[in-house]
Specification:
This protein has 13 helices and 17 strands. It is an alpha+beta fold. Bound molecules: adenosine-5'-triphosphate and magnesium ion. Magnesium ion binds at residues 32, 35-36, 107, 112-113.
């Protein structure tokens, strides 16, 4: 054996590419590309997207085209600096985790873009016109390169290809059959789902001005509002608020009503035909990306710590929990970036306040059960607003008191005092079953209409019986 025999431990590209793309869903791969656009804006603005600017993404866009022959995502988010393209952007894995320190970006592994390209097809091209640079460039990944064992790519300049604005265009052709299949047809189920996911995961980003289109259709952000008392009104309806800074993560929590209580009739309808777009539950946001939308499971406190499990009765309740940090590792983000890491310290620290807040509203709903309509008046002087705006309003309102939280430094909460029903003579609910023919007989006798609702028949019987008793009693009293 000679001393300097070297062992080849290089990865083989074929293995690398197939491993890399196996566990990622197509949808997540595409969302990774969209995340890169948002990170691009953030890098340009150098963390200027703070509270003073409600629309930091205004004017920025990403246009996605997905057909059976081609996938493309084109943005005007600043482009890839040539130096980054030469040294970093096309490497598999990042060797500079500190590159974006101080910014609210979510790119951290250095894999998202490449994985998305490999996942979708064999021929791709990344064209970019970086801000403050004179020339655009492009980098191509070809089927031959994917089969070869060398790891360099060529950065080229083209005289003909022009991007009209500073930005990036990623194009994938020679799509894999399964991908082309999913993009195909006018009524692609995959694209419908993708639109829904973008509406939810980018709800806040779209609300802050970003525009995303798929095959020419603009995507509207999913709603993220809660009810709050109109300024200077006496309405008692406001969300519970908790705000804190823990381990360098800024936390804001608001939970409350997103609409007035649902009547019993509405709840019965809902139980029979649940609307899939139900907007009740918790939404969790990390650095502007929604990671969980309208969750109604134990993860967000339903069915835990004295909070009842989610049930249609609670359809009016929603909460928004926002985390913000320039240290990504402290955010409760799963590695896929589209899920909540429930074991993270910041999440565990805030969990008690999520359930504390949630319970105020489930209790209210329970207390008013059966007399929901009586609460309508309390909802009269309210309006729907984004949690951020509500927090700002309450913060600047002298009559609103935030109290310190004993267990945590740098934490404060606001608890609304919601109206309680009078308990002296509470309402009781009566439920019983009777044969249909008997109900019809009574309906004809009392209403002259066999179609009368059984509940109305029952109610009239009750009133008549009560009237008779009162009459009899007053007669007795008179004798
Ligand atoms: N649309 C874009 N606009 C600007 N820069 C981009 C864009 N897409 C990619 N880049 C650059 O390319 C780099 C590599 O992107 P990639 O998605 O592969 O990794 P990442 O975003 O750094 O990390 P992650 O794997 O966590 O997404 C990015 O860090 C960024 O500098
Ligand atoms: Mg990325």
């Amino acid at each position: 054996m000679t001393q300097n025999d070297t062992v080849n431990a290089h990865p083989t590209k074929r293995f690398f590419v197939s491993m890399l793309t196996r566990d990622i869903e197509l949808k997540d791969a595409i969302l990774d590309l969209l995340d890169n656009c948002i990170d691009g804006i953030e890098r340009q603005q150098q963390g200027q997207d703070n509270d003073t600017n409600a629309k930091p993404y205004q004017g920025f866009w990403a246009k996605i085209t997905a057909t059976k022959d081609k996938f493309e995502i084109w943005d005007n988010c600043g482009g890839i600096p040539t130096e980054i393209a030469l040294e970093k952007a096309f490497r598999m894995g990042r060797d500079d985790p500190e590159r974006d320190s101080g910014l609210h970006t979510v790119g951290m592994y250095g894999i998202g873009m490449k994985r998305a390209l490999f996942k979708m097809g064999k021929q791709s091209r990344v064209t970019s016109r970086p801000k403050d640079e004179p020339r655009a460039f492009f980098v191509e990944i070809t089927p031959e390169w994917l089969e070869s064992d060398h790891w360099e790519l060529k950065l080229q300049h083209s005289e003909t290809e022009e991007l009209t604005e500073n930005g990036t265009r990623v194009t994938v052709e020679q799509l894999h059959d399964n991908i082309a299949f999913q993009f195909n047809s006018d009524k692609s189920e995959f694209l419908d789902d993708l639109i829904k996911d973008i509406a939810q995961f980018y709800a806040l980003i779209i609300d802050k001005g970003f525009s995303v289109t798929i095959n020419g259709h603009a995507i509207g952000g999913a709603p993220l509002t809660l009810l709050t008392a109109l300024i200077n009104s006496q309405s008692p309806i406001n969300p519970y608020i908790f705000k804190a800074t823990i381990e360098g993560v800024e936390i804001r929590l608001a939970v409350g009503f997103r609409r007035k209580l649902a009547s019993e009739k509405e709840l019965e309808d809902e139980a029979q035909r649940p609307r899939t777009s139900d907007e009740a539950g918790w939404t969790v946001i990390c650095n502007d990306r929604v990671v969980l939308y309208c969750d109604k499971s134990q993860i967000t406190g339903w069915g835990r710590a004295q909070v009842p499990r989610y049930h249609t009765q609670f359809i009016s309740i929603a909460g928004v929990l926002e985390f913000r940090s320039n240290n990504l590792l402290n955010l409760p983000l799963k590695t896929t970036k589209r899920g909540l890491d429930t074991s993270s310290t910041v999440y565990l620290s805030v969990f008690d306040y999520m359930t504390e807040g949630l319970k105020i509203f489930t209790d209210f709903t329970n207390k008013w059960k059966g007399r929901e309509e009586e609460t309508n008046v309390a909802f009269e002087n309210t309006e729907s607003k984004k949690p951020r705006e509500i927090l700002k309003d309450l913060d600047s309102n002298e009559s609103v008191i935030f109290t310190n939280v004993r267990k945590l430094d740098n934490a404060q909460r606001y608890t609304p005092s919601l109206p309680r029903p009078e308990t002296r003579n509470p309402l009781k609910r009566i439920v019983f079953n009777r044969h249909a023919d008997e109900v019809v007989s009574l309906a004809i006798a009392l209403f002259d209409d066999p179609q009368t609702k059984p509940s109305d028949v029952g109610e009239r019987c009750f009133s008549l019986a009560l009237e008779n008793i009162i009459k009899a009693q007053s007669k007795e009293g008179g004798n």
